[in-house]
Each structure stands twice: as structure tokens, then as C-alpha cells.
Amino acid sequence: MVEVLLLALGMDCSFRIWVLGKEVCFVGRWLEVSKLFELAKGVHPVPIAIYGPEGCGKTTLVRYVVRRLGSRNYVAIYIDALASDLRDALEVWGLDLEDLIEVLMRDLGFSLPSMVSKLVARIVEEVLARLRFFGRGLFLAVDDVYKAIGLENVDRYTKMLYEWIAWRAPRYGIENLLIVLTTSEGVSKRILARHTYVEIYTLWNLDPAGFAELVEQLDPRRRPEDLYIVTGGNPRLAIELARYGWDVEKVKKLYSERIRSTLRMASIDRDRIRALVEDPDTDPQTAAKLEELGLMIELFRNASLSPIPTDRDLGVGKEWAWQTPLHRNIVAEILRETS
């Protein structure tokens, strides 16, 4: 019933993030929230990896779900694997772990991102030891874990979590359990896609309605439809535009310098890239190389948390897409200069 009301309202101001000196309400992700709630019912047998464009809102989504499930009959834990301090890395709802944090801080003396990610199993074991789980659920989200542990550990780390679900969780009588990992890296996604002990779900950018709600909060004077053409609904890019006074050319110049340098270092045939500007699906091998450079992204449409448009004007095909329309347009301009 609560979710239905939130859908009708379009935003939830009980969860706010601080953006450019103002508090912004959670918007536009009700389908994704509903799907994660469903996946958290019962013991989900494998971890799920949420993969999507950089800046599409993976962190905001999982932190929101942690808060919402933590107010229900769940212990919900968010871990920022890239945090440099354990206090900043942990957010726990439904259980007080302050004393555990003190113990871990004392044991470590200091913490590094790789250390934080490796503490996941210990933190979960402590949670289980402190609470009888019969009738309760556990939701665990580990954010940016593969950047923290390194690509060489993707297989081993993910399989460890899978085996923990299969062999350890039943001993504690957990009735509802979901472990979520987030990543933006194409390489880690391809490693995971080879295995059956993890499921990959795509999170896409905000749809036009959700994006309009975000822009309205950032600056009600702006026309969201004009900005959507530039961003493709990417929240981080919208926030960057707001930071620079909605000057598209200024932001474009900042991105252009990075992309130009990236392409200069990459030995990729320019004609192949040019073909992908016209049709993102035309050359999967080259698209995969550009994904490693942070310019394109593979789409998992059959396992998607979000509706994904097919719109070649926005650089979105059926199987591949540019990170944002801005990325695609900058690459097109660079190619025209060098042709």
C-alpha cells in the first residue's frame, strides 16, 4: 500500500540526498524498488550484480532500498567498499552495530577500501550472531566492490558470497535474504557473465518523467526535455550541468578533454568507432573495447531493473549504448575533426 502511494506521489522526501547545497528527494525509481523488494522475498540463491552507466543512480537506489527494508522486518546493511573509513563505509538499519564498528576499528587501526570489502563476511556473521533471524530478513548491498578488490578477485569474491548464501544462511533460519553488488565496469561484468553463481541486472538512467522531477528540484526554470536530449536521463550528468550553471558547452568541453585523451591512447580503428556512432549495435567487438574505456555499455535487456529505450538519436541500440548522448556527440565531433 505504501509503495502504491509513493508511485502516485512520484517522489519520497523521507529520503533526501544533499546536492549542490540543497536537499533533493528520491524520485523516479519505483519500478526498480518494487523489483528489488520482490527479489528480497525468500532466500535469493545467488548474489545479484547491478550494472549500469556511470552516474545512473546505483548508489542512491540501493541506499534507498536499505532504508526502506530496514524500516520493515529486515536488517538492512549498506557497505561502501571504496570508503577510506569504516564509519563512513557502513550504514545499518534494523540493528545497532556501533560496538562492532568500534571493535573492527580497533582491530584494523585504519581501513583501506580493499579492507572494507573483505570485512563483509565478518560483518554479516556478527549480525547473525547477535540476532535470531527467524521471521526476519537480511538485505546486504556492497557498493563498488569490484573497484575495491580488483578485477583479479571478481570470480573468487562473488563465489564466496554465493557459497555463504548456500551453506551458511540456512543455519540461521533466514527467511528472506538478498545480497546486491554494484558495478559500472564492463570488464567485471563480462567476468561475472561467464558464471551461474551470480545474476546481472541492468539499471538504466531515469526515464523522462523521473528525470523531469529531478530537474524540477534542481532548478524549476529549466526545460527537462532539452536536458534529456543531452543526458539521456543520467542523474549525475544533470547534476554536473547544474553545477556549471546549465552551460552545456562548458560541461561538454570538460568531457571532451577526457574523451579525446582516452581515444588518443586507444588503438581502435576510427572507422569502426564512426560506425558505432551511427548504430551502437553494428560492431560488438569494438563496442566492448569502448566499454572498457568508459564510453559505451552493454545492455542486459532480459534482466533489467529499468525500462531501457531503443533510441539511436540518444545513442541507445538494442544490445549496446553510449554512456550518454553527450559521450556519443563528443566522439562524433572528434571523429569529424580527424577525418
What does this structure look like?
With 339 residues, the protein is of the alpha/beta class. The chain has 17 helices and ten strands. Helix content is 50%, strand content 16%. β1 and β2 form a beta hairpin. α2 (30-39) crosses α3, α11 (208-218) runs parallel beside α13 and α15 crosses α17. The longest helix is centred in the C-terminal third of the chain and has 18 residues, at 248-265. The N and C termini lie far apart (58 Å).
Task: List segments where confidence is low: pLDDT < 50 over at least 5 consecutive residues.
Answer: 4-8
**Which shape, going by the Cα principal axes?**
globular
Mean pLDDT: 86
| Rg, Å, rounded | 21 Å
Query: Order of strands across the widest beta sheet?
Result: 5-4-6-7-3-8
State the end-to-end distance.
58 Å
Q: Sheet bearing the most strands, described?
A: 6 strands, mixed
The H-and-E topology, N to C, reads as HEEHEHEHEHHHEHHEHEHHHHHHEEH
Give a summary of the structure in a few sentences.
Helix 2 crosses helix 3 (58-70) and helix 11 packs parallel to helix 13 (235-243). This protein is 50% helix and 16% strand. The longest helix is centred in the C-terminal third of the chain and has 18 residues, at 248-265.
Give the key terms.
globular; Rossmann fold; 17 helices; 16% strand; two-stranded antiparallel ribbon; 2 domains; 339 residues; alpha/beta; 10 strands; 50% helix; 6-stranded mixed beta sheet
Produce the secondary structure layout:
Blueprint: H1 2-9, E1 11-19, E2 22-27, H2 30-39, E3 48-51, H3 58-70, E4 74-80, H4 86-89, E5 90-93, H5 98-108, H6 113-118, H7 120-130, E6 137-143, H8 145-149, H9 154-168, E7 176-183, H10 186-192, E8 199-202, H11 208-218, H12 224-231, H13 235-243, H14 248-265, H15 270-278, H16 284-292, E9 296-298, E10 320-322, H17 325-338
Parallel strand pairs: 3-7, 3-8, 4-6, 6-7
Antiparallel strand pairs: 1-2, 4-5, 9-10
Helix pairs in contact: 2-3, 11-13, 14-17, 15-17
